[in-house]
Amino acid sequence: MTSPDPGVYISPTQTYAEVQNLVRAVGRLEAKMDRFLDEAKDIRQDVSDHEVRLRALEHGQSERQRTETSRVDAVEKRVTGVERRVWAASGAVGAVCMGAGYLLQFLTQ
Asked: How many helices and strands (H and E) does the chain possess?
C-alpha cells in the first residue's frame, strides 16, 4: 500500500499575509472601479447634453435657427412688398402705354 498524502500545511501567519495581499488588491480594484464609474457618469452627462442639443436642432429650436428664421421672414416680407410694387408699376406702365397709343392714334387721324 501507498502511504496517504500528508497534504500541505499553511500556517495562520501565511494565511493572514495572503488575506492582507487580497485586501490590498481588492482596494486597488475598488479605486479603479470608482474612477471608471466617475468617468462613465461624466460621459453619460455629456451624451445627455448632446441629445438635448440635437433634439433642439431637429425641432428648429436653437437660437441660431430662430434668428435665421426671423431674418428669412423679414427678407420675405420685403421681397413680397417689392414684387407687389413691381407688378403694380408694370400694370400702370401698360395702362399708360395703351392710353398713349390711343392718344397717338387719335392725334394722327
From this structure: 2, 0
